[in-house]
Write a structure and sequence with these properties.
Length: 369
């Protein structure tokens, strides 16, 4: 039954973008995007169900109630402390102002007595609070310098002076606080500083409401700023994800384009290098012709060409003869080692015949002489 109620609640929140927007608005502190919720629909439904049990900060409803009560109690105690602290600070400021006035001008004796009595009373009260051990857990804690509150009470001014001070204190405190409020009013609205005392007092009654209005406006702007910050962060994440997709698409397009034009680029480079090599070869030939023209005459070059042609023809003839001899030698080598012995014997006989022919020729020439 609970599952049916939760599904009914989730379906009542909306579908698609409306559900996603509701979840994102309910959990602004979570680092979630609409794409995350789209890719995880069950998780999105879980968050949508949790919205009826927790607030935007992640606290449950009972815990939030207890926290609000504790916050109210804390605020009440804080106001009480601030009230007493403000009163104490105000009295100290009054004493300081009196000391300053006393050094710059002559003050009436009764006024001096009033502030001296107030200063001594404040000091005695402060010392009594420091010496009061009733609020401590350790009752055996030794007193400071062996003093007790009773010892300090002996330093209080005379009772009649204290009573006279208490009677005049509200009036003096009111004057001091009014002076501070007027200073605050002049700081808040400098253009009102030249107004009359009555008009300032009238506007002073509305100062609290104006300050409260300004405070609410500042809190509203702060909340708007926080929402804008969350929205900006979410939009930044979306922008970065889209930017990454665009970069990946651009990289794929660049790669495809590069592969497509690589063949044409290589062919053009090959044609360029072939043309450059042909140009270098032509330049080398031109340099060789120039060197020949600078070194030899036209007749010498013609004679050298004829000699070269004759030598080339003789070289070709010798190469052809060498090739035929190598073929014959290869055919003779097929006959084996027996033919090698016969060939050596034939060479020996040829050498002997040549020697005898030479000797015969020499002998014949000698006889003719």
């Amino acid at each position: 039954m609970s599952a049916g109620r939760e599904s009914t609640h989730v379906s009542s929140l909306g579908k698609g973008d409306s559900l996603h927007q509701h979840v994102l608005a309910s959990f602004p502190l979570c680092d979630l995007t609409e794409e995350d919720l789209t890719q995880n629909p069950q998780f999105c439904k879980l968050l949508a169900t949790l919205t009826q049990h927790v607030d935007q900060t992640g606290l449950t409803v009972p815990l939030k109630t207890e926290l609000d009560k504790a916050e109210q109690k804390l605020q009440s105690q804080r106001r009480q402390w601030l009230r007493s602290e403000s009163l104490h600070k105000g009295l100290q400021e009054m004493i300081q102002d009196h000391c300053i006035r006393k050094h710059h001008a002559t003050t009436p004796p009764d006024q001096n007595m009033f502030f001296e009595t107030m200063e001594k009373s404040l000091l005695v009260s402060q010392c009594i609070r420091q010496l009061d051990l009733s609020s401590t857990t350790n009752q055996d804690q030794p007193s400071i310098l062996g003093l007790t509150p009773h010892h300090v009470m002996e330093l209080m001014p005379l009772e009649k002076n204290v009573q006279r001070m208490k009677q005049g204190l509200p009036r003096e405190l009111e004057k001091h606080l009014k002076k501070k409020c007027l200073s605050l009013l002049s700081y808040y609205q400098p253009e009102w500083e030249g107004e009359s005392e009555g008009l300032k007092s009238s506007k002073l009654f509305h100062l609290s409401a104006q300050l409260d209005k300004e405070k609410k406006r500042a809190e509203s702007l702060k909340e708007t700023c926080r929402e804008n910050s969350v929205l900006l962060q979410r939009q930044t994440q979306l922008y970065l994800s889209e930017l990454i997709k665009c970069i990946q698409l651009l990289q794929s397009l660049i790669l495809d384009h590069r592969l497509r034009i690589q063949t044409d680029l290589d062919r053009k480079k090959l044609d360029y290098f072939e043309g450059k090599c042909e140009l270098v070869l032509q330049k080398i030939k031109t340099e060789m012709v120039e060197i020949q023209l600078d070194t030899y005459t036209v007749d010498s070059i013609s004679a050298h060409k004829k000699i070269r042609e004759k030598l080339d023809s003789e070289l070709k003839a010798c190469q052809a003869e060498k090739q035929s001899v190598e073929l014959k030698l290869a055919s003779f080598e097929i006959l084996g080692k027996d033919f090698e012995a016969l060939a050596e014997e034939y060479c020996r006989l040829r050498q002997e015949i040549e020697m005898k022919n030479w000797a015969l020729k020499e002998f014949t020439q000698y006889n003719d002489k």
